[in-house]
From TrEMBL:
Keywords: Hydrolase, Signal. Residues 31-279 form the Glycosyl-hydrolase 97 N-terminal domain. Gene3D superfamilies: 2.70.98.10, Aldolase class I (3.20.20.70). InterPro entries: Aldolase_TIM, GH-type_carb-bd, GH97_C, GH97_catalytic, GH97_N, Glycosyl_hydrolase_97. Residues 576-676 form the Glycosyl-hydrolase 97 C-terminal oligomerisation domain. Residues 297-484 form the Glycosyl-hydrolase 97 catalytic domain. GO terms for molecular function: hydrolase activity. Pfam families: GH97_C, GH97_N, Glyco_hydro_97. Residues 1-22 form the signal peptide. The keyword Hydrolase applies. This is Glycoside hydrolase family 97 protein.
């Protein structure tokens, strides 16, 4: 061998050794948040099972928890896995919401992409991508196209969440008939059954966690099934066949999210869910219009009017015009019209086959009503109840949206009233199938509705919906939704919503996104005859506490006309915000939220409490220190309480500044609303 060749081999040997080491499977990968407090570590054990763990300040938050996927037509991703590649990346970006609870957002995270490959069998591979923020973690599976994996038939995820410490949990059951509309349980975490997300946890030392998902697109919604102790496994909503998810590769699952905060309000202020969604896909969305609205709705729940035709029919031409005139006179942007269209007569619940989304009842002149609304500067909020019959709705979807587009209807409330598992979709075989509201077929359906509405510059407010996972960032016309027990349960529920309900929603359901809760009940009448667990001041506070860019003044118009002093707050309060602060609160006990109006200097504050009357000493350091403010205060009056006198309210003004402390006194089931007018 020549000396030259020997020298060349000697030079290449270190490089070859390094290459071999780089290609050799690793057993762990690690990434930390920008502030270095939260750490994620991915490992494989001696059986090749992959897991991840999350710690904060060196203490475990999520103990080692399994990763993987199970399929209906091939071997699962679980054993014989090795880490064959890993990449980290820092990201820091600011972006602006076209509307929202805050205008400016910061997406600041460190990312880790871990490639896991099988060491035996077909040698398939997939990535797990983590994004670690200062306020939590998001992760998802990314499956590339590869031999034998042109399509995925996912039977289940093997994703786990093993809660490291004992905790209290606030949760609602999964796979039950009434979708998301349940009173929240409060139990030790090891007594949770099958739970929907978001699920909120508080450990003994006060750490708050919320487990949910982000960017749910073309996939089934995730629930949580407790396996044992504090260990949960993802439980996907069933599909219409053996597989829960059917997709082509390459494919990325929704993000699995873990929000982490030292206090309950930290969860509220988190931007993690929105940051994990893709940017605006619609372009110019200046046509999306946040607004307050009134509507022909509450009187149906009180059985004073009906959705169906007949002598008590609610949505008539004259009644709609009365609501339009009221909205215009009070600065509201919209009027909801329910029951305007043919199909409500007979057994519509869970059927939906008789609904027409273009034919009005004879006593509702849709052309005249929309013309009157345009003349008054008001839009109708249309209504499409489907009774869960998504296939029937899709057969008329384009025509229905085109009608609204032509008439200038800027928003539509959709409805899917049907027992869970009883939605109807059309499969690839052309046949009708029963489906779950959060299964993949219904996720796809809602996507079609949002896109069809966007083509006509219409915003969408779905009820009985797929849960919110932050898609409003990608599709800003998906402005709000229901997805929890709303105000209507106070009209006829037995029981109605308990006094702690709203102070629970703030830290559970509302972490997912805006809710059309429909506050503003002044009359307190109920069909059931049981008292509503609220006070008038609390009803005002809900306009700040429960965020939605569509906010309804839900009561009968005559109740607002009879209480103009209290109604003034509803007239004044905005629905679009520059910034939001969760100032104080505890899950299920009380919440104090302050928001600054978008493009302005005035602040609005809402505070609500549970059954316990309480007083909160609130520093006003969120106000501009260089300004003075007139605080217009709407508080529970003497003797107020939901059992005693729900209507007792005191309205007063004070001069305040950032160095002052305001005493927020709330009666049992009560609240307080404040407008801070900058001077």
């Amino acid at each position: 061998m020549s000396n030259r060749l020997v020298g060349l081999l000697a030079a290449l040997l270190p490089l070859a050794t390094l290459t071999a080491l780089a290609a050799e499977p690793r057993t762990s990968a690690r990434v930390a948040s920008p502030d270095a407090r939260i750490t994620v570590e991915v490992t494989t054990d001696n059986e090749g099972r992959a897991s991840y763990a999350v710690s904060r300040d060196g203490r475990p938050v999520i103990a080692p928890s399994r990763l993987g996927l199970m399929f209906t037509d091939t071997r699962k991703f679980e054993r014989n896995l090795a880490i064959v590649d890993q990449h980290t990346q820092a990201h820091d970006e600011r972006w602006e919401q076209p509307w929202g609870e805050r205008r400016q957002m910061r997406d600041h995270h460190n990312a880790l992409r871990v490639t896991l490959a099988e060491t035996a069998g077909p040698k398939r591979r997939f990535d797990v991508v983590f994004r670690v923020f200062d306020d939590g973690v998001g992760f998802r599976y990314n499956i590339p196209k590869q031999p034998g994996l042109d399509r995925l038939s996912i039977a289940e995820e093997l994703t786990e969440f093993d809660i490291a410490d004992a905790a209290t949990a606030w949760w609602i059951p999964a796979f039950e008939w009434n979708r998301e509309e349940y009173i929240y349980h409060r139990t030790p975490v090891d007594q949770v059954g099958q739970a929907q997300t978001p699920i909120t946890l508080r450990t003994g030392d006060g750490l708050h966690l919320s487990i949910h998902e982000a960017a749910l697109v073309d996939y089934s919604g995730m629930n949580l099934a407790r396996v044992d102790g504090r260990r949960f496994r993802a439980a996907l909503t069933p599909g219409i066949g053996a597989a829960k998810v059917e997709v082509a590769t390459p494919f990325a699952t929704p993000w699995r999210t873990i929000q982490i905060a030292d206090r309950a309000g930290g969860l509220v202020e988190s931007g993690l869910i929105l940051n994990l969604n893709a940017p605006n896909a619609l372009g110019d969305v200046s046509w999306v219009r946040p607004m307050k609205y009134v509507g022909i709705w509450w009187e149906m729940h009180l059985d004073r009017k009906t959705w169906a035709s007949g002598p008590k029919h609610g949505t008539t031409t004259a009644h709609a015009i009365r609501h339009i005139d009221f909205a215009a006179a009070n600065g509201f942007g919209g009027v909801l019209v329910e029951g305007w269209n043919v199909g409500w007569d007979g057994d519509w619940f869970g059927n939906g086959e008789t609904f027409s989304f273009t034919r009005p009842y004879p006593d509702f002149d849709i052309e005249a009503v929309t013309r009157h609304a345009r003349d008054k500067g008001v839009t109708l909020i249309g209504h499409h109840e489907t009774s869960g019959h998504a296939a029937h709705y899709e057969s008329q979807l384009d025509d229905a949206m085109a009608l609204y587009g032509r008439l200038g209807v800027q928003a539509v409330k959709t409805g899917y009233v049907a027992d869970a598992g009883q939605a109807k979709v059309r499969g690839d075989d052309g046949a009708l199938h029963y489906a779950w509201h959060e299964g993949q077929a219904m996720v796809r359906h809602h996507q079609k509705v949002v896109e069809a509405a966007a083509a006509q510059h219409i915003s969408v407010n779905p009820h009985e919906p797929v849960k919110d996972t932050g898609l409003r960032r990608t599709y800003p016309n998906l402005v709000t939704r229901e997805g929890a027990r709303g105000m209507e349960y106070n009209a006829w529920g037995q029981p109605g919503n308990p006094p702690e309900h709203e102070a629970t929603l703030v830290y559970t359901r509302l972490l997912a996104g805006p809710m059309d809760f429909t506050p503003g009940i002044f009359g307190m009448d109920t069909k059931s005859g049981t008292p509503m667990a609220t006070t008038l001041a609390k009803q005002l506070a809900l306009y700040v506490v429960i965020y939605s860019p569509l906010q309804m003044a839900a009561d009968l118009l005559e109740h607002y006309e009879s209480r103009p002093e209290a109604f003034q707050f509803v007239r004044d309060v905005p629905v679009d915000w520059e910034e939001t602060r969760a100032l104080d609160g505890a899950v299920g006990e009380f919440a104090v939220i302050a928001r600054r109006e978008r493009g302005g200097d005035d602040w609005y504050l809402g505070a609500v409490t549970d059954d316990t009357a309480r007083t909160v000493a609130l520093p006003l350091d969120f106000l501009d220190p260089d300004r003075r403010y007139t605080a217009q205060i709407y508080r529970d009056g003497d003797g107020a309480g939901w059992r005693t006198d729900p209507h007792a309210i005191a309205i007063e003004s004070r001069d305040v500044g950032a160095g002052d402390t305001l005493s927020i006194a709330m009666a049992s089931g009560g609240g307080q609303a404040v407008r801070f007018i900058a001077r």
